[in-house]
Every structure is written in structure tokens, then in C-alpha cells.
Amino acid sequence: MKLLNPWIALTAAALFVTTAGCGGSEDIPAEENLDTGGETATSEAGEDVTVDTSSTPDTGAVDDTGAVVDTSSDADASCTAPLTLCGSGAGVCVDLSTDNGNCGACGKACATDQVCTSGVCACPTGKVTCGTSCVDLASDSANCGSCGKACAAGATCSSGTCACPTGKATICGATTTAPGTCTDTTTDDTNCGTCGKVCGAGQVCTSGVCACPTGKVTCGTACAELSSDPANCGTCGKACLTGQTCISGTCSACPTATPDSCGGACVNRQTDPKNCGTCGNACPTGSTCTAGACVCPTGKINCGTTCNDVSSDPLACGSCTTKCATGATCTSGACTCPTASPNVCGGACTSVTTDPNNCGACGVKCGAGATCTSGACVCGAGKVLCTGSGCADLSADTNNCGMCGRRCGTGQSCVSGVCVCPAGQTLCGGRCVDTKTDTANCGACGNSCGTGGTCTAGACACPAPATMCTGAGCVNTSTDPLHCGSCTTQCARFGTCSTGTCGCPSSPVATTTCSPGGTPTCTDTSDDPRACGSCFTQCSDRQYCNGSGTCACRPGLTQCTITGGGGSFTTCVDTSSNPYACGGCGKVCASGQECKAGVCVSATTACAPGQNRCTIGGLQGCVDTRTDPLNCGGCGNVCNRDELCVQGNCRSYRPAVGCTASPCPTCASSFGGSTFCPAYGSMKSAICVEGSLCP
After folding, report:
1. Which residues contact residue 271 at a Cβ distance below 8 angstroms, ignoring those fewer than 6 apart?
2. Model pTM?
3. Which residue from 331, 288, 338 is spatially nearest to 313, judged by alpha carbons?
4. Which residue from 455, 490, 668, 676 could staple onto 664, CB 3.0 to 4.6 Å apart?
């Protein structure tokens, strides 16, 4: 009979088997009928048995232990302890303490080789976790002794220690990321004797030494058989010619067909087109080498690299060096241009009667829009030919308005030969502007509102706190040294403006306003030779202002009273070179002597390198014209009081007012740009020196 539900039959059998084990000993006779609620099953005796399906749920699932799990929609969504329901929907009852797929929590799966014990994933006894796998550190060659410690290729792991096999005890190629390879350095051709030593071509590693096999020797990095190797015939490096053979260590003679030697090869100079007659003599394209001579085909001659028919070849017409113009033909050795373009201009055949680029004569261009008719440039009706512009309509052309070459300004148009600006605009500086709003031409051409100014209805206005100053635009009279307190008040050179009042910046000492050159200038009277101590004291050319407001001899000079010529006078001298104060005041060199390094010596003694002999008051001395301000660049060339001698050139200098380091605004505006230099001599202030060098 048909079994409607296989699980019903299995349940019935289970009931029959387990009844005796539930506290009783009575078996259910096979012939007794079971109340199945309508469905019939077959008993072990082969009789029909009715099973009550209304009281037995069809769960359709079994857990890991074989227990039935109720997965029907009406079942209670819970499991009997110690099982836990895992999974979405109906789920599955599992034991979280032992389930490898749900160890300790649903969805927590153990790694490969791990087992779940008491809800914790762990490796079996003798193994540890390395990454996601269980490994035996005692024998795993990828994790030998510890995780990640890999043995060299060819090695084995025993008791947690890597060991190479017998005969391959050396590890080669090991790096911080690779364990290397077990190697036998006595026989490995790529690691011979030591790691990394590679034997040459043909060599083999024997007992840790690279050697050539019997019958061959080492030539460079390869093995060669000297008795037969044409590249090393008889000895290393002795190469036979191409075409020769090496026999018993000797290069054979060149073959009969190629008996000559050229460029390291056997050739036949009688027939070789690359070595015809002599080595390196290449025959022209199209020729042959016959009896050692290059021969062109009949009707052609040798023109160096090619064979040409000079009677018809436009590239060599009449001679190898005559090239016909583009478009011309060569007939009977003469170049001929076509009838329609009989003239030659720029290496091409053309007609000067019709060519707009060569009209009337070569190189005469008609220009845009013009045509060449009968050798003359012609424009269409209503246009005039303007040189460089071509044909132009003088009534409307902005580049040729009213006459050739008259260009209209930016924004202008040409109307009836007159340049005009659009309505409401004026031509200012070659462009059309609206003087009602243009800040550079506000109200009239050239009236600038300046930086920050605005132009409204032809009048300039400035944003607070700026003031409009004619020619300067918007300025802040509280801080602008060129317009300090008012538009017409200009502070002294290098001066400052604060709250509308001019002042001088502080140098290492106080500064004041003087006019040493006629222009009010902020200066430091402690070391300015033009105003030393006061605005009215100027030092002499041999002096400088010593930083205390006193004129003193320049550094390197000494003040001495010189006697001679019927009188005496006090001046600053260089005692290292002045023969009237050689080595000190009052020490005068005798006739025939000169002062050298502060000592009177014979005038025939040469000056030291870098020094020149100069005549000083009738006597001579050796001076360094690179630094001597009294002989700067040449004997007798005295620098001015406000100059220093720098590399043989007199250079102006000023105190670097307000500066103690570079960059210095004072130096940037002095002499059109100068160099900031430390204090010179006993000056208290740094200085600005003309040029790019310091003294």
C-alpha cells in the first residue's frame, strides 16, 4: 500500500522499539492495530497498522545528536537546554559548547582543524593556531618552532628546528622576506664556493670552484676551445675574420672566393659593392662592382651615392650637381619649366604675371584679397592695396581707417574712414573708455582714482579711511610716508609716517633728518660720513664716520703729520705702503727705496701678489688696489667720503637705517638696489653697499 508520510512509519517503528525501555517490559504485539487517526502503515509482521497522524508532528529536521527538531510554523521558537536556536526563520537547535559552526555563539565558526570545546575554538593537542590554521610547530616547515618561521627551500622541520639535507648545508638567497634555499656550494653553478657566485658560460662548479671542462680554457667569463674557437683562436681574444675557420689554434686563410680582408671579414674587393677596389669604397645605388670598379648601367653616370641619367633626371640634369626647379623637367640635359609657369622663384617653377606670392618679380606678395594680373597686384572695386595688409576698405577697415596703416584704438570702429568710439565713450590712451566709471580716466583722460578708488558719475571717491590725492589716488594719510597727514606732505627719504606725522626709524642709535645731498633724508649721524655727529659735518675722502659721530681715518689708515716740500700737513695714510710713514708716522724711506708691508726695501723688490707699485709723493709703495680707498682699482684713484673700495671698485654706501638683518627696505631703495652688509670698521650700524658685494 502507499505510505503517505515516511516519517510516520519511522515514528511507529520507534514507538515499537522503545516502549520496553520506558519503564515497562510489555511489547506491543505485531498483530495489534495502532490508532493512526486514519492512515495505515505496515507492521514488522507485514500487517497494516493505522497511525494517528493528528497527534505526531511532521518536523522534517534532525539535529547533530539525532534529536528531532520541530521546524513547523506552529512549533515553539525555542530549544530544550543545552541546545540553542541558531539561524533565521525556523532555525536549528545546536549545542554552542561543541558545534564547530556555532562555537560559543551562533555563526561563530572555528577555523580549519580547530574543534569546539566548552564553547571555545581550539586546536587539538600538539598543535597551535597560526593565522587561520592549526599547525604542529615541531614539524611544519612553514612554521618551524614558531608561527611564520619558514624553513629554506629543501629543508625539513624536526623538533621545531629547520635542517637542510646532507650535502646542502648552506642556505643561499635568504632575505628579510624569503627563507632562501638549501644549497650545495661545491656543485651549484649559480652559487659556486659561496652564495651568489655564478659560473661563466660553459663552466661547471667542481669542489666549489668554477672551471671549464677538460679541453677548454676560461676566456673572460666563458669557456673556449682555443684549437677551434674562431673568436678565441690559439689564445683568448684572438678572433678570426668572418669567413675564416680556426684549425689547431690557427686562423685559416680566407676562402678563394673572398680572398681579401676588410673590416674584420673576408671579402672580394673585385666584386664586393661595399668594398669595391679598396676597403670601405661603397658603390652607388644601382651600380655593380666589376674588376674592382663601380660600374653604373648603360646611360647613367656615377653621382656619388646614386647612378643618374643626366640627360633626363631632374635631380641631376646635365651634371650630377644640377637640380631642376620643382615642376621642371630635364630634357637633353637641360631643365625646362612648363609654358604656364616659365619663371623660377624660390626653387620652383611659377609665373610672375599671375602668382600673388611672386607678382612682377620673385618674392613680391600681393597680400590678402589681392590678385596678380599681368605682373601687378590688383584689388577689387572699392578697396585699396595696403602694404602688408593686402586689400583694404579704407572706409571701414580698423587697421587701415581713412588711409593705409592708420589703426583705430581698442574698442573703436572705422566709420566713413574715421575712427570713432561707441556712444558715451572717449578715446583715452588708445582705447575707448567711459569716463563716468573708468577709475583710470575718471571725468577726463588720465585722471586716475588710484588703488582702491572708485569712479562714479565722473568723480573719484575713496573708501574710509583713505583720502583722494591727485596723481596718487586713494592713500591713507595716517601711514603713507609720501602723503603723511596731507596729500602734499612727503616724509624724508627712508622716513616713516605714523598717525599722520613723519618720523625716522630707529637704527642701532637714534636717527635724524638731514639733507646731505639736498634731499631730506633719515640718517644715522653716528656713522654717516656725509652728516657725522651733526647734519653739517662731512668727513674728508680719507676719513669715515666711526660710529660715535666723529670723523676718523678710514680702517687701515693712520693719521700722521707728513713733512716735506717746504712744509708739513696732517692726513690719513696707509703705513703699510706710504714711503713717508712706512711702518709708522715719521718713518721716511730713503731715495731708491719703497715701502712694502710697512718696511722700507729696495725699489727693485717685487710687490706681493695682488699688490701694485704706486708713486706716493715722489716715492713708491706697494698697495692692494682691490681694497685701498686711496688707490682703488689703480694708483691715485681715491674713493669719495661716502664710498668704499670693493674688489677694486669705489662703491657708495649708506647706513642701513632701521635694519639689523637682510632683507632691508633701506637697501632695496638705495642706489637702485644695494646689498645689506654688516657694520664696517667701528660703525655701529649695518650698511647698504652699492652692487652685490660687501667690503
Report:
1. 289, 290
2. 0.35
3. 331
4. 676
